[in-house]
Amino acid sequence: DAKTTQPPSMDCAEGRAANLPCNHSTISGNEYVYWYRQIHSQGPQYIIHGLKNNETNEMASLIITEDRKSSTLILPHATLRDTAVYYCIVRTQSNTGKLIFGQGTTLQVKP
Amino acid sequence: DADVTQTPRNRITKTGKRIMLECSQTKGHDRMYWYRQDPGLGLRLIYYSFDVKDINKGEISDGYSVSRQAQAKFSLSLESAIPNQTALYFCATSGPGQLVGYTFGSGTRLTVV
Fold first, then answer.
1. For residue B91, how many other CB atoms are within 10 A of its CB?
2. CB within 8 Å: A97 and B94
3. What pLDDT was estimated at residue A32?
4. Which of A85, A92, A93, B111 could form a disulfide with A104 if both were Cys (CB 3.0 to 4.6 A apart)?
């Protein structure tokens, strides 16, 4: 399974864009990148996923580099409620389809 | 009602006791999972099931067992609880393939004293 590397923590000012990086240099050609977040011990929440094209939904945008070795999750206008641990996960291609969580990035949005 | 419901939400039990954590889902998905989270750490997979007759061990299955009673129900048991099983436990469900995200329950906080 491809592994991911994320910075352990980041700060962002309220109202500004939060850009969370993720490295996944060993990703396979047909593996997707998923992003989840966990707000204070609640169950993780799905944010977005992508394969090779940039993706956008009501929560965030996902930018994947052309070589697919890294990606960036963008929260365009961060609020205090976006303070959470953000997990970048590469989904296995085997039939197991297990989500393997790393340590994630703790994003602190400050007023 | 929540898509994935876990009971109980909190539980304190004594060392050596048997305890069952229950999970039910209304998503209609075949796949269900149990994860454990220790303070400051990410989630680790305990067991997973792709249908009623399919049960698989995850990263840390020792000391745990599971039962898939129906498509919608997946229970986790600690046969003889020990203090280092104190953790936050999450149940999740997903559809097949790459295109459907996981849905997690709200978690069960278990303390073994």
1. 28
2. yes
3. 86
4. A85
